[in-house]
Amino acid sequence: MIALYNTEQVYQIEKAWFAQGHDSFALMQQAAWQCVQRIIHAVQQKPQTKRACVWVGHGNNGGDGWLISHYLQKLGWQVTTVVMSADSLLDMDDMLDASDSDAHKAQRIARQHRDNFHVFQQEARDALAVHLAADVYVDALFGIGFDRAPTAQAAHTIGAFNHYAAQHQALKVAIDVPSGVVAQTGQVFDGVAIRADITLCLVARKQGLHTKDALDYIGRVTDIPLVPHSDSVPNAWLLSQAYPFAARQNNSHKGSYGHVLIVGGNRIDGSQGMGGAAILAASSAMAAGAGKITVACHDAFHGAVLTSLPDAMTLDVHDTQGVRGLIQSAQVVAIGMGLGRDATAEHLFQAYVQTAMEHQVALIIDADGLYHLATLDKKAPDFVQALKAYAQRHSVRFTPHSGEAARLLHTEVASIEQNRFAAIRKCAQHYGGDWLLKGAGSLVLEEDVLYVCAVGNAGLASAGMGDVLSGVNAGLMAQQDLDTDQRSLRQAVLLHGMAGDTLTQTDIPATWRIGQRGLQAQDMPAVIRHEMTTLSE
Ligand SMILES: NC(=O)C1=CN([C@@H]2O[C@H](COP(=O)(O)OP(=O)(O)OC[C@H]3O[C@@H](n4cnc5c(N)ncnc54)[C@H](OP(=O)(O)O)[C@@H]3O)[C@@H](O)[C@H]2O)[C@@H](O)CC1
Ligand SMILES: Nc1ncnc2c1ncn2[C@@H]1O[C@H](COP(=O)(O)OP(=O)(O)O)[C@@H](O)[C@H]1O
Ligand SMILES: [K+]
Q1: pLDDT of 86-124, one tens digit each?
Q2: What DSSP assignment string belongs to 396-414?
Q3: What does the radius of gyration of the chain's CA atoms come to, in whole angstroms?
Q4: Which pTM value belongs to this model?
Q5: 112 vs 149, more confident
Q6: Using an 8 Å Cβ cutoff, are 466 and 494 in contact?
Q7: Mean pLDDT of the chain
Q8: What is the atom index within ligand 1 of the atom nearest the CA of 147?
């Protein structure tokens, strides 16, 4: 698994390296030289490619850029350097000063040898355009220091980079981080960021590169580690490889693989209802290998459940005595998918979670279950505290998307989106248990370890996909013969994402191939089963 670091950790790694007596400017030179090697490697299919346009900012990322310009020129490339702001330009008549920053040293070296640069000005873009023909565009505007919405000047420069790179069909190489992407969180403001083909990530892999907006900007990420840091504890891990499943024991029966109770699929006040949510969860739990499934849903949907999933048993979700009785014999209760948000549903939620706790049954709380949990956090804090205490000793998984997480933390969605890494930690601190914060580059917090999911795609952005994931979670958790990793939340997230990827890849058997547009939750269970088989081979 690739280790992911937050910005402070990256600065700490660098600091520790300098504290051992290593020179910071030497590190910048190393960084730039290795970036140049990767750029040359990237264009080796087209040996005539020798024109670069390097865009530099005023921090150390810009320093990398000045040195990249210099080294490429020394190697015989034709290089134009575009400076974001005249403010960062040095007076070259001044002598080299011992207190010069690394970025200034870099600029001096580049300009001493060949003063071929242009200052970007929004109003004079057309005049600049004639100098910008190049095969490779290098983005050294901002690195990990970029931490807020861009200034107008930064936004214009980023926009111009993307515009001219597209016009010249240039390869776009981002140094460290595509400028405009906040390395800490993956956030991009109003779509203003460099759309890189390649990101050359310096020192350590930044956690924000693999989640949220960043996914549309990073292109292919290559690490340039520069500094040994295997002893520093990362903030998160990049999840991409699921655990293989062991074969079942011959001498086993359905009871060996657990009984899952799906509680959801309700219908309120004669509305059309949400029976599909429970059906999707149930069929996914079955596909993930659960031994037995019961669906506690509104009785109006029992016919539909049995038609689409004859393997399942049904029960009226409003039959509290019946459902509570079943909870006692189940291994896992997944509650909330289409449960509804009215007062009755809230009462059912609290009663069933309470029963699960009394009988030490594993829990998955999703969708409307999370809605009620947020309400109860204010209304019945003792219940929420009891759940938190229960989650310390038993398996409880909470699986919100950003909207649900915002409600649980009594805040706005925008504040979750600003820093999903912080949000998932806050959720776990407040409610206990293991957490999944869904969305592009989903975050998983399991046993206090943070993961970023590298599989899955925008095809999963359709109704019912979360219900499928709850089903997979329940199915895995129910199987007592599996080990902890095989039953884990991250395994469920991986299987779900891998199935989405398989369905949308072009190099797979036509039987499975669908495409991102039009991918449906009901397409998933069969492919989840296929992924599990493939993993086991
Ligand atoms: N020796 C080393 O340490 C090594 C470092 N290395 C390289 O250094 C990079 C980190 O450098 P860095 O810390 O100087 O930050 P960087 O990203 O260049 O820019 C910061 C500037 O941008 C500004 N700014 C921020 N947000 C903004 C916004 N929204 N809109 C507009 N402006 C904004 C910010 O302003 P301020 O916050 O100061 O007001 C500041 O002036 C790292 O990614 C790697 O490439 C490598 O060479 C390896 C060795
Ligand atoms: N753009 C995306 N890239 C990767 N995964 C996604 C994307 N959009 C949604 N997903 C995944 O699809 C699932 C959707 O779940 P959810 O929002 O709960 O849907 P629903 O409530 O309709 O069932 C989550 O696992 C989420 O991470
Ligand atoms: K950059």
Answers
A1: 998 998 877 777 778 999 999 999 998 887 899 998 878
A2: EEE---HHHHHHHTTS-HH
A3: 27
A4: 0.94
A5: 149
A6: no
A7: 94
A8: 26
- Is residue 175 within 8 Å of residue 34, measured between CB atoms? no
Counting from 1 in the atom list of ligand 1, the atom nearest the Cα of 24 is 1
Q: Specify the residue for token string 């702001």.
A: 85
- Closest to 429 (Cα-Cα) out of 367, 384, 466, 395: 384
Asked whether the beta carbons of 278 and 243 are under 8 A apart, the reply is no
Give me the helix-helix angle, 489-504 and 465-478, nearest 10°.
130
Q: What percent of the chain has pLDDT above 70? A: 99
The DSSP secondary-structure symbol of 149 reads P
Calculate how far, in angstroms, residue 444's C-alpha sits from the geometric centre of ligand 2.
Answer: 13
**Sheet strands (E) in 132-230:** 136-140, 171-175, 198-202, 220-224
- DSSP symbols for 262-327: EE-----TT----HHHHHHHHHHHHHTT-SEEEEEE-GGGHHHHHHH-TT-EEEETT-HHHHHHHH
Mean pLDDT over 300-320 rounds to 95
Structural domains of the chain in order of their starting residue, each with its CATH number = 2-6+13-233 (3.40.50.10260), 254-536 (3.40.1190.20)
394 is in an annotated binding site: no
What's the CA gap between 107 and 112, in Å, rounded?
8
Q: Is 154 in the pocket of ligand 1 (CB under 6 A)?
A: yes
Pocket test for ligand 1, best of 58, 60, 64, 100 (most atoms within 8 A of CB): 60
Instruction: Record the tokens describing residue 263, joined without a space.
Output: 């509680």
